Structures are given as structure tokens and as C-alpha cells.
Amino acid sequence: MLELDNIQYKVEDFSLINISLKIETGSYFVLVGASGSGKTMLLEIIAGLCNLSEGKVFIRGKDITKFPIQKRNIGLVYQTRSLFPHMSVFDNIAYPLRSKKISKTEIQKEVLTISEDLGISNLLQRKIQTLSGGEAQRVTLARTLIFKPDILLLDEPLSFLDVQLRKGMMQLLKKINSNGQTILHVTHDYTEALQLGTQMAVIEKGLILQTGTPSEVFMNPRSQFIAEFSGQKNFYKGILEAASGKDIQLRIFKTAGLEIQILTEETESAGNILIPEESISISVAPVDSSLRNTFNGKVKHILNAPLGVEVIVNIGVEIAVIVSSSSLEKLELREGSEVFISFKASAVRFIR
Amino acid sequence: MASDNWRVNTLHYWHVKTLHATSQHDKNATYKQKKAMFKKPDILQLIFIFLGGLLLLFIIAPIAGMLISTSPIEVFQTAADKEVQSSIWLTLWTSMAGVIIFGLGAIPLAWIFARKKFFMKRLLLGLINIPVIIPHSAAGIALLGLVSRNTMVGGLAEHAGFNFVNSPAGIIIAMAFVSIPYLLNSAIDGFTSVPEHLEKAALTLGASRARVFFTISLPLAARQIFTGLIMMWGRGLSEFGAVVIIAYHPMITPVMIFERFNSFGLSYAKPVTVLFICICLVIFVAMNIISRKKNARTR
Questions:
Q1: A44 contact residues in B (CB cutoff 8 A)
Q2: Are residues A241 and A295 in the same domain?
Q3: Closest CA to A151 of A253, A322, A319, A24
Q4: Together in a domain, B200 and B261
Q5: Partner B contacted by A75 (CB < 8 A)
Q6: Which of B197, B211, B299 sits opposite A82 (nearest CB)?
Q7: For chain B, what is the mean pLDDT?
Q8: Least CB–CB distance from A74: residue in B200, B204, B298
């Protein structure tokens, strides 16, 4: 459906690097990235508002890289209010049709149909200035959907809505997608990817880090960014060393001066590890057990977590450990306490 | 500036007063506010009102004085004078023609200035204001140098069957030359104030560049462009210096006023002046009302 092939784009001190994406017809694709990661720029490139120096954009297999904006049939809904303030709601929604040679009665009919679909038919005669944020968002969507774009590009469509309106808008977007509309939705909020996306990608500093279904991406985060987002704290970048000794599965992962033992069948390479915080135990003296990894450090913070208490220990890197509040009392832990933390080599997950 | 401050302050005061006086709750606050206003006279505000008042007087007094000291009968007699009638008509239509002809170039130029980045843009932005800062007689001389019979432009015009010197065409270019910066500046401000993402949005909705210009950029900048057009027209029809050098005849009203004063004296020049001022005032008040109504509709 939509395919981006090796897109490079540079403005002043920012650049998009080697962006390649494939978005299937009918999918709801969510692109997640922090602000300044190049999301909006990518949308403008697809819509044709920026001239590409390198790379290609295909829609339905057709190269549209050199197509002018108005010939692309791509709908772009901006984050900021982009309704035309000097026109009524009706005229705003009818705007795309008036560029085409369509009769007045036909326009009237189409506007009515789409506004009934989006639940805004009572707003048609209103002035733009009198609309609430949620209403304006729906009108903007109607104005874009009315010309039946091949793909709908949404730039942070939920970020200016309060909780109640977000819910309604999410349901609406899902409905639009289930009617067969392909959607590319960019956001800084990973929960939107989980709730809406059938496919997702992560973009950071102009680079696509990972693509896949939301569950693939969140189960195997390839970036600190996503790991943090999905609530997984102990995520470290480093190098997995080659096997040595007789146990070829037990390997060393080196990060920030630490050597962590890990049970894996992956080949040696640079990558990331994830240590689930609930699989780490904490003690005030070294324990002799089967646990392969034991480090000592100082308690840096103690924070309340939804389940139990989160203890942040500095062992050279910061590592988060979940304990119950009764263990916390029994061990008399407080900020600055000297502690040992241990975890199994099999609890450590390697993510390339 | 001072007069503006005076207006703002008084307006603000009246606004506060009427707004709060009409609302039922908050009466206490209104009372306190009023009390505070009367209790502590703001010295700065008093100074501003005094200075502003003087300035207003300076603007109003000469015009009011002239209106009072000229008998209405004389004004009516002057209005019946064929020579005066044709002069006023000439002034009105040439200034309007200048606005229309040169507006056709000024509005696209303003859009380019507002939207595009290009080499020496700042310098050019400065250059378009030159007609305002040079003496208008000098502007007239410069224009005459460009369009008199022995120049290329003058020669071409002669081929086409008309002449700039001592003709309505000359009057039009003289008026337009000195007044075009008012339109340009206002239109540039107008186009700059149109959010660029609205234009982009319209493009993504399938509109051609031309359609975006006529349905989005132009209507949204219309109020400022209209103000610019009125300013340009007003400045054009009051022009004397540049016009008198290019075209003493046919006589536009500012030239006629000067001529009557020069040949016959003050009392003879007054009725024409009063008549012309009245006509201009009526037109500008009417224009302002139209522009307000337009404004109310687009807001």
C-alpha cells in the first residue's frame, strides 16, 4: 500500500536517515517517537509538502515521489487546529469536493453522509470558532475522509483531548480503520500504539529503530525509549561475548564495566539486555546459591510501585528491584543502605 | 502614540465599568475597582490624557476652524462650479484607478514577501518604503525623468497614443508611486498573519496552489489588504507634490486648492478645501463601516 524506500531528508541540524517502511492496506500503523524525532516531518514528506532529495514514496505500487501534493490523494490531519476559520463547518467539510467537478447536490449529499458517520451533522451550520476541541477534531477528520484518501495520516490526533474525549476519538478512529481506511498515526504516546495499532514502528532521532506488531515491539524492545515506555526499567546496551568454557550457553554480557552472566543461544554481538525487576532478589549479605549474578551497591531511591516497593540500587548502573513492603521492613532498607542484589542467568533476556 | 494611549486607557475604563456594572455578581469587586480608580489618580494616566488631548486638539482644531469659518452657501456654490466638479471627479477616479491597477501587482508581491525566502529580501523590503520617505516633489521629478516624452517609456506611451505628462495617466502613476507602500506593508502583514499550516492543509485536501491562494490566503488576509487599499487610496487622492510636477493640468483638487490659494488667496481656496475634505470624510467613514462589517463576518 504505502511504501517508503530509503528516504533521506535533511533540514538544518536535523535529518531523517534511511527511512524504509511498509504499510499494508487496511492496517492501522502507529509511529511512536519523542518530540523532535522527525515524525511530523515524515508525514509531510509522505503528503508531499517537503521535496525529497533521496528515496522514494510508493502508493499501491506507484511511485508518487514526484507527484504534486494535490495529486497524491493522501489525507493529512494536523495536530494543531487547521480548520479554515472563515468558513462554516459545512464549507470546511465540502472544501476538498469543490476542487473537483462535482454537482452541488452531490456535495450536499456527501457532506451529510460523512457528518452523520462522525456524529457531527448537528454542527454543519456552526462557525469554526464556536467548536470545542473534540468537535473541531471530528470536523477535521470529516473534511479529510470525504475525499476518500488512500491513506490517512494523523499527527498526534489525541494529544489535545481530555481523557473522556480521547476515549471517544479512539473508538472513532478504530471504526474508521475497520471500515477499511488505512491509517498512519504518529504519536509520542506508546499507549496509543498498544490500543490502536495493528502495526507499529519506533523512530528516534530520525532513525527507525524497530517495526512490528505492538506486542512484538513491546515484548522485545530494541531501544531504551520503548523499554522505558513499556515500564521495563532494567534495559542496558552492551556486548554479548563469545562462548568460552564448557557451558556454551552461559555467556558474559559486558555493560558499563559490569559482567553479567546470561543464558542464551544468540551469537556474540552488540545488543541489549533486559532484566525483569521482579526477578531480582535483594539481601544485606552475600548469599551462596545457584544465582549466577550477584552485585553489591547502595540503595539510591525507594519508591512506591503499584505492587510492592521499587528499590533503585546503584551497582555501577542503576537497577530497579521490586520487593514487598514487608521485606523492605525486615531488611531495614533505606536510602544509602549497602545491599547485594542477585538474579539468575536465565532471567536475563538478550535483545539484539 | 500619546493619543492612542489616552484612547486605550479611557476605553479600558469604560469597558471595565460597563461590563461589571451590568453583571449581577461581582458587584463588590466592581465597587472596589471603581473606588481604587478614584481614590488613587494614576499620575501617568493623567499626563497621558493631557498630552493626548493636546495632540487631538492639534489635529482637530485647524479642520474644525476651517469648517466653522466657511459659510455653507459658499460651499454649495463651489459644489455647483463645473470646474470644481470635474476636478473632484478626476481626483477620485485617478486615485481609484491607481489603487486597482497597482494593487494587481502589489498583492502578489506582498504574498511573495510574506511566504518566500530569497536573496536580498530585507533590502527589498526596505526599498519598497522609499516613496514614503523621500520628498514627494522629488518623487515627481524622478517619475518625470522616467516617463517624459524623450524617455523610452514616454516614447512607447506616445506610440500607444497617450502621454504621461499632463494627463490622467501621469496623475495615476504619481499617486500610485507615493501611496503603494501603504498597501504593500498592510498586505504583507496580512499574508504573514495567515497560518502557513492552513495553506498546507488546503493543498493536502486537493486544492491547486491558485485555489489555495484565492480561497484561503486572500480571504484570511482580506481585512488587512482592504485596510491597505483604503490607506493607499486616501494617500493617493491627497497627493500634491508628485502630481503637480507630472501633471499640473488636468487639475486634481489638491492642485486646484493650491492654485486658487496662490492666485486669489485664502478665502477663495477655502470652499474647495472644505468640500473636498467633506467628500473624503464621507468616503472613509463609509469604507470603515464596510471593513468593520466584513471583519465581524470573518471573525
A1: 200
A2: yes
A3: A24
A4: yes
A5: yes
A6: B197
A7: 85
A8: B204
Q: Do B202 and A143 make contact, defined as CB atoms within 8 angstroms?
A: no
Contact residues, chain A, for B193 at CB < 8 Å: none
Lowest-confidence pick of A81-85, A96-100, A157-161, B115-119: A157-161
Whether residues A198 and A240 fall in one domain: no
Domain that holds residue B36: 2-69
Instruction: Give the model confidence (pLDDT) of A316-346 as tens digits.
Output: 888 989 888 888 888 888 888 899 999 998 8
Domain stop point among A206, A229, A252 = A229
Give the single-character DSSP code of B216. I
- Our CA angle for A242, A246, A249, nearest 5°, is 55
Among chain A residues, the shortest Cα distance to B206 is held by A70
Q: Taking CB atoms and an 8 Å cutoff, what residues of chain B touch A96?
A: 205-207
Q: Is B86 in the same domain as B39?
A: no
Q: Give me the sheet containing A54-59, strands edge to edge.
A: A14-23, A2-11, A54-59, A62-63
Q: Flag whether residue A99 sits within 8 Å of chain B, measured between CB atoms.
A: yes
Mean pLDDT of A60-77: 88
State pLDDT tens for residues B225-255: 999 999 999 999 999 999 999 999 899 999 9
CA-to-CA distance for B146 and B155, rounded, in angstroms?
10
- The pLDDT assigned to B71 comes to 86
CA A182 to chain centre: 17
Percent of chain A with pLDDT over 70: 99
Q: Specify burial of residue A67 (Cβ count, 10 A radius: 0-12, 13-18, 19+).
A: middle
Do the chains contact at B205 and A96, CB–CB below 8 Å? yes
Please report, for residues B100, B103, B155, B279, B298, the alpha-carbon distance to residue B226 in angstroms, rounded to integers and kept in the order given: 12, 11, 35, 20, 13
Contact at CB, A147 and B198, closer than 8 angstroms: no
CB of A51 within 8 Å of any CB in chain B?
A: no
Are B64 and B200 part of one and the same domain?
Answer: no
Q: Are residues B30 and B102 located together in one domain of the fold?
A: no
In chain A, the residue whose alpha carbon lies closest to the alpha carbon of B223 is: A86
Number of domains in chain A: 2
Domain that holds residue A38: 2-229
pLDDT of amino acid B2: 41
- Of the two residues A212 and A35, the one the predictor is more confident about is A212
Name which of B247, B245, B280, B239 is nearest B131 in CA terms: B239
Domain total in chain B: 2
Chain A contact set for B195 (CB, 8 A): 80, 82
Q: Which of B117, B199, B204 to mutate to test the interface with A (most CBs of A within 10 A)?
A: B204
- Residue B287: its pLDDT value, please? 86
SS3 category, A300: strand
Q: What pLDDT was estimated at residue B53?
A: 96
Check CB contact under 8 Å for A73 and B299: no
Q: Residue B208: its chain A contacts at CB < 8 A?
A: 70, 99
Distances (CA, A) of B262 to B93, B252, B255, B268: 25, 15, 10, 10
pLDDT (tens digit, 9 = 90+) per residue, A244-294?
A: 777 778 888 988 888 898 988 888 888 888 888 888 989 888 888 888 889
